[in-house]
Amino acid sequence: MSVNTDDRHALEQLDGEPLDEQIAYYRKPFMVLWAAVQESSAELVEDWGMSPELAQLWVAERLRQVCDSLVDRLAERAVGHGVSKSNVSRAAGASPTNALRRFPRLRDLDEGRMPERTLIDDVLDSLD
């Protein structure tokens, strides 16, 4: 069996697992993320006088945007390492036939163009 066949089989099995078991794989990272939202929003409340609820929403939305950018980057990376586009789509919860619709930047790679910078690039640059 090929790696892509093994990956597809694993994704299909994982998709068939109860939601509680699926959540167990990302519960810890979520708890870290939730703590980070709380910490960052407390700074916004202090610095800008925002309500805690609005500050949490503001931080969470920015994190969502960065995470969306990260997902796109990870999809590009996976395809660059030989993972099939259909498996990339499956892993992202999209139809296997919609890889280029879900990840339009993959078309740039197909056509030999370097995709433009994304938000994740700016965030990573800010860590230096």
From TrEMBL:
This is Transcriptional regulator. The lineage of its organism: Bacteria, Bacillati, Actinomycetota, Actinomycetes, Bifidobacteriales.
